[in-house]
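Memo subject: From amino acid sequence to discrete backbone structure tokens
Keywords: amino acid chain, backbone geometry, structure tokens, three-dimensional fold.
Body of memo: The sequence and its backbone structure tokens, given next.
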Amino acid sequence: MADLKLRKLPDRTPVKLIISVTPDLNRALCEYAAVYKEAYGQEDAVPDLIPAMLARFLESDREFARRRRK
């Protein structure tokens, strides 16, 4: 086994998901992207923002984290 400080990186192969959302959710996501652009001065498409949004949601869900540790 290598004696490196950096461990072997996990699998980072992207997985493509296709989802359908309601028109209301789509509008909200587009509005969020506009607010994101105002805040950071960078335009990112909704599909580019969704992975980060989902990751942040999962990171902030304490019950999910508690059950995941079991």
In short: The helical segments are 23-40, 46-60, 62-69. Residues 43-70 form one domain. The CA atoms of residues 34 and 43 lie 8 Å apart.
